[in-house]
Amino acid sequence: MLATVFVRAAGMKLAASELETMSFARFGYAPWFIYLVGLAQMLGAILLWVRGYVAYGALLLAVLMAGGAISHLRVGDPAMLSAPALGLMAPLCGIAVAHRHELPSR
Q1: Taking the CB of the first residue and of the last residue of the chain, which one, N or C, has fewer CB atoms within 10 A?
Q2: Is the pTM for the entire model greater than 0.85?
């Protein structure tokens, strides 16, 4: 289910939907950054399905969600606009912990 959420979100960014384009401009990001985030979201969603790389996908997506939440707060949006990103971070962090054996050990 999470992978589907991020494939859709990535598709909106890669298609440069008006909503996404306006949000990225309001956050003060360069126009090309929307495509970088979209590609990173797509990669993260794909990695959630690849045995041995699930933790990497979950961590990548969790970092992107942290960036999204911070972006909203940085421009003075109400904290509730960060809630979806923070809400997605929780299961992503849980997945990363559950698959921590895929990460290199010290």
Answers
A1: C
A2: yes
